[in-house]
Amino acid sequence: MIRIAHKGDNDYPEDVNVLLLSKRIFYCHAQFSIEYIEDNNPTKDLLNNLKSKGVDLFTFVQRSFMMDVQQYPFPNEVDPIALLKITSFDNWWNSQIRKEERNLVRKAEKKGIKVETVEIDEDFINGAYKIWRETPIRQGRRYIGYGLSRAALKRKFERLSNSDVFGAYYNDELAGILWLVYGDRVARIRQFVSMIKHRDKAPNNALMAAAVSRCCEKGFRFIVYEKMGYLPNLDAFKIHNGFKGVAVPRYYIALTERGEWAIRFGMTRDMEHFFAPRIARFLLPVYNQVSRTTPERVWLIYDRIMKQ
């Protein structure tokens, strides 16, 4: 049975492989939620099932960094991801990150930041709610998670079976969260957010060190941290913490005529990654300005349309 959710929903367990649907301009697009940490090679039964559910196009990535060299006869393009290859914590600490990052981890400890694996209880939900409500702007743009309700946060974190959630605390206040989801020899950073008012205490660096340490304990070889090349400040943080940009193939399978048109006219990428990274960086200030000044009700209408 295929578990289906709309991209952007918070009503499904995000450490379980769920088929995410997203409505584009004129077609329905589908991909699995944890495709970077598990193989999701298409089968005839899967594709027929998707077509029967009104899906026009299915996409999946080939985890080529796992030495997967199989070639698929489908249209494809480069998917630039941030990837950290792990051999040991000592190697990461001494060879893969800069002296500045090591000093920031030490600074966090001196400032009183304590990192621990959290229990998903009311105290954690209340602390997470404060983080999600702190500011509508992050990375210079609209923060799509801003204003998430306590109920939605509880649903988001309530059913964790194959992941760890780390909390960075300052004087018993939750200052940051890093959520790691585990797969086949690969972990993925599913959520990474902290309070801006505590950034001077370097909670993000302390959280990253804890995440790498846990992956080493569990024997994971890689950590995936979303896309690379679109947000300069975030890219710099990733690079300084040992991540490198790696190009993996993303394949597209048209299930209907609409899907074929989407591939033909290059309408297959997510809106935020529609342009190549070099072009996206040039357009980023424009997008940031638009996202900050557009009324929230417009975004709510847009999100509602995309989920219909």
Labels describing this entry:
308 residues, eleven-stranded mixed beta sheet, alpha+beta, two-stranded antiparallel ribbon, Aminopeptidase, 2 domains
- Major beta-sheet overview: 11 strands, mixed
Low-confidence stretches: none
Shape: globular
Percent strand equals: 25-35%
Q: Give the total of beta strands.
A: 13
Provide the domain count: 2
Under CATH at level 1, the class of the largest domain stands as: Alpha Beta
Gyration radius, in Å? 20 Å
Q: CATH superfamily assignment of the largest domain?
A: Gcn5-related N-acetyltransferase (GNAT)
- The CATH level-2 architecture of the largest domain is identified as 3-Layer(aba) Sandwich
How are the strands ordered across the major sheet?
1-2-3-4-13-5-12-11-10-9-6
Mean pLDDT: 86
CATH topology of the largest domain: Aminopeptidase
Helix and strand sequence: EEEHEEHHEHEEHEEEHEHEHHH
Helix content: 25-40%
Class inferred from helices and paired strands: alpha+beta
How many helices does DSSP assign?
10
Distance between the termini: 22 Å
